[in-house]
Amino acid sequence: MNQFTYSTQAPKSFNCNTIDEQTAAQAEFYNHLETQAQTIAPTADPLTSRDRRIIAEIIQVEPETIRTIWIEAGITVWVQLVNGGRLPFDRNWFAKRVAEVKATLPETPRERNDRLSEELETACQKYGLTHGEIDWLSFSTTLYFNNRRVGFIGYNRTDQWYSRQRPLGGSRTTDSIDEAIALLGIRQPVAA
User: Fold this and answer.
1) CB under 8 Å to 63, separation ≥6 — which residues?
2) Which one of 59, 130, 131, 159 has the fewest CB atoms closer than 10 angstroms to its CB?
3) What is the mean pLDDT of each run of 10 residues along the chain (192 residues)?
């Protein structure tokens, strides 16, 4: 005699918690996938406009179509496009092309000012100087030593540093910021 009986009816006490647990587990899984995707391709924008111009030149697209870039496993460079597309490149080939394009791509005015500002800050630290507000259009400023004005320094359109001691005096030009500061009579402090 068969002890088992089969029923086609649903059990009287159906547990709704299993559906809720499954939904929660699925949501947690999707959240984990999204977190992993953010780790691989972060949404924070690490690219400068110059970076975008360089990459755009290499892959022949408009700079504004490039969202981000990352390296996977140390061998593949991925370029993420704004429209959702991704392009893979060999890291060594891509690095070589970046170097080639950088050598030929002219600086933007902002990039020029950022570079000059960095040179100015480094020189001021080296010589114990401070400077006033920078005129970003002409890239010029006043230099101070112990709150005493020692002269003016700037960078001209012929890509040379210049300095002068008086506001309306004649400027003397040179190829380096160190030489321009030296023309003001300032020498690097010597350690005792």
Assistant:
1) 49, 52, 53, 55, 56
2) 159
3) 50 58 73 59 68 92 92 91 92 94 87 93 94 94 95 93 88 94 86 61
Cα 69 to Cα 92: distance, rounded to the nearest angstrom: 15
- For 161, counting Cβ atoms within 10 Å of its Cβ (0-12 exposed, 13-18 middle, 19+ buried), the class is buried
Q: Which two tokens stand for residue 129?
A: 């100087």
Q: How many Cα atoms sit within 13 Å of 190 on the Cβ side?
A: 2
pTM of the complete model: 0.53
Beta bridge partners of 90: 76
Q: In 3D, which of 44, 87, 84, 82 has the Cα closest to residue 62?
A: 82
**Token pair belonging to 175:** 């190829």
What does the pLDDT read at residue 37? 58
DSSP string for 118-133: HHHHHHHHHHT-EE--
Place of tokens 């006043």: 142
Torsion of CA 154, 128, 189, 168, to 10 degrees: 30
DSSP track, 143-155: EEETTEEEEEEEE
Read off the DSSP letter of residue 65: G
If one counts every other C-beta atom within 10 angstroms of the C-beta of residue 143, the result is 23
